[in-house]
Amino acid sequence: MLIAFSCGLSVLIGALLRSLLARTYSASVRLASVRDASARRVSQRTRELQAIYDQIVERREEERAHLGRELHDASGQTLTALRIELDLMRHATRDSDATDPAVDRFSELNPLVHRLFDAMDGVVTSLRPQVIDHLGLPAALEWLARDSLRRGRAVDLDVEESLSDLPRSTAMGLFRIAQDVTELLFYTVQPSAITLSLAHKSNEIVLVARPDRGGASPTLRPPDELVRRGLQERARSLGGQVWAKELAEGIRVVVPHTRVPEVEVS
What we know:
Blueprint: H1 2-92, H2 101-127, H3 131-134, H4 137-150, E1 154-159, H5 168-188, E2 193-201, E3 204-212, H6 225-237, E4 241-243, E5 251-256
Parallel strand pairs: 1-2
Antiparallel strand pairs: 2-3, 3-5, 4-5
Helix pairs in contact: 1-2, 4-5, 5-6
């Protein structure tokens, strides 16, 4: 009787174990299914958000271009007319008494208008660098270096000339990345200069920005998180990545791009 009881207990335990294993397996399958469905939803949502971000960036560039044209057309014509009028008035008072205060005021106003004209031209170009449409990315980066130098920030360029033939969206994206990188490093690291290099390597475009502090130990400011996140999003919108473990050592941005082979014309 004891043997029969033991056998019955073993059968019961075996049945319970099989039932438990079956339920565990079923739960694992359901969990895997839910996890896969969640992963698909997250992936789909990520793609949707990326598409929305790309549309926002494109719209913002269109608005910048529109605002730049409006400023150029409106203020450019007004400032040009003002410069002409001042030149005419200066010539008209050239034979006047040199001690007349009005003559001195005309002499002071003329360079002020010239500086205002240059500043407005810099704002318009920063909003939408037309040179990037006509001469490509290297020329636009040269303007960026000149504009930075005008504000007392030296940027030394090493840009591959073949990058002048990039698609418009890629060139503009890389230009904005260069703007964000230099702005971030000048603010946080406060270097005496930045070396900015841009080259096509294999199937990638590599942008490297290195701050030069002249041997001084860096005293870092907290980075502007909006600029930092904007930089990461711009790189991500081009399918690229940002490496910036230590800002004092520089920033590296890699964007995938396949060089189109030149076709020889026989």
